[in-house]
Amino acid sequence: MLVLPETVTVREARDVLRMLEQNVKRDSDPALTIDASALRDFDTAALAVLLECSRQARAWGKGFAVRGAPAKLSELAGLYGVDDLLGIAQ
Prior knowledge:
- The protein is 49% helix and 20% strand.
- It is built from 4 helices and 6 strands; from the N terminus they run ββαββαβααβ.
- The longest helix is centred in the middle third of the chain and has 16 residues, at 44-59.
- The mean pLDDT is 90.
C-alpha cells in the first residue's frame, strides 16, 4: 500500500506523482492501493494524481483503490464524477 503525504496541491502534485509512479512499477501486489488517510491539505490536483496512478496501475494490469480518503476528497471525487474510477472507500 502506498501512502499519500499530508499535502497534495498543485504545488506538490508533480513530486507526489513521480514518487507514486516509481512505486507502482515496484509493487508486486495484483492491486495498487493508495492510503489517503494522512491527506489534510489538498485541491483538485490530488484527484489528478490519483487518476494518473489509476491509469498506470491498469496499464500494468493491476486493480486500483483509494482507502482512508478524507470526506472532502470523497465529496470532490463525487462532484467530478470520478469516485468510481478511483475506487474510493472510507
